[in-house]
Amino acid sequence: MAHPRIARPHPVVPSAVPAVSTLTAPRPFLRPRLPARATLAALLLAACGGGTRPEPPPAVVAPAVAAPAPDPVLPPLRIGLALGGGAAKGFAHIGVIKMLEANGLQPVVVSGTSAGSVVGALYASGMDPFKLQERAVALDEASIRDVRLFSGGLVQGLKLQDYVNQSVDNRPIERMRKPFAAVATQLETGERTVFIRGNTGQAVRASSSVPGVFEPVTIGRFQYVDGGVVSPVPVDAARQLGADFVIAVDISSKAGGKRPDGMLGIVNQSIAIMGQKLGEQELARADAVIRPKVLDIGGADFTQRNRAILEGEKAALAALPQIRAAMQELKAQRLAQAREQREQQARAAAQREAALAPAPKPECAEEGWSWNPLKKKDGCAASN
Prior knowledge:
The protein has helices at residues 36-48, 92-102, 115-124, 129-138, 158-167, 200-207, 235-240, 262-283, 305-356; strands at residues 79-83, 109-113, 180-186, 192-195, 217-219, 222-226, 245-249, 288-290, 369-371, 380-382. It has 384 residues and is an alpha/beta fold.
């Protein structure tokens, strides 16, 4: 009898998939995504070979440069005006002053000889050029001329003195709005006298007393005559008043082969000849010289006053380029001197600091030695 065949159950293999699940397609292998910048950097490193980044070159540090010190601040130039003598030619001074001020050149000190002292006193008192011109046009010759015979001169000069004092409101020289000096000649000694204080009209009268025409003026113990004898154009007086830059106005007569008209013209030209050489030396000390073309105007010809003023304007206008160039040159010289002075002061200060600093201790080369100036000359001694 055949035995019944028993079917053996197949072993149950546990499934890796859960009993209830949704079957999905298997995921492909994903490579991690690199950022774009990292990828680019990796490519660059690979291209450079070896993957090493080259060392950057050392930075070049420029040495610190100290800023240059600013230029010293200099005070403005003090312009001085030296007005020469020349009788009626002196009206040209008004035209010169007009043109200088119109072009921004303001004299701060004024000196005058003879006719220049008359215009200079009125200008220093505070009159502007247009007021001066009004006075000149309205001037009556008789108001400044007091003739007196047999007194040492034809004209006493007292009327001129009163006219000047009235025009400046009786202010003495030291109270003028601009520093002013009138130059005269001491008759006893022939020395130049510069009036910078006292009676303004009297000083102008002394400065304008042409020998043989005006009486000498007595002031104190001395007598005085026209300043043109010793200083036809008072450049040095303007310097004494503190001017840095002197503009001289020369209207003096020159011996040019022409016979002067009248007694006053003869006397004026004689004085000019006597002081011509001396005047040239003083004019050479001016920074700029203006010469109005008024030599053909007579010393007593007051009818030419308007023409003299115009000639003064024209001469000043023609001299402006020379004046400005000379002023720039003087400013450059003063700036260079100020810089040099500042450098000298800095060097002197550095030397003083170095002298006050303690002396450095010498280094002792031998081992076991230290600095001790009391034990040995060179400052090194054996340490204890």
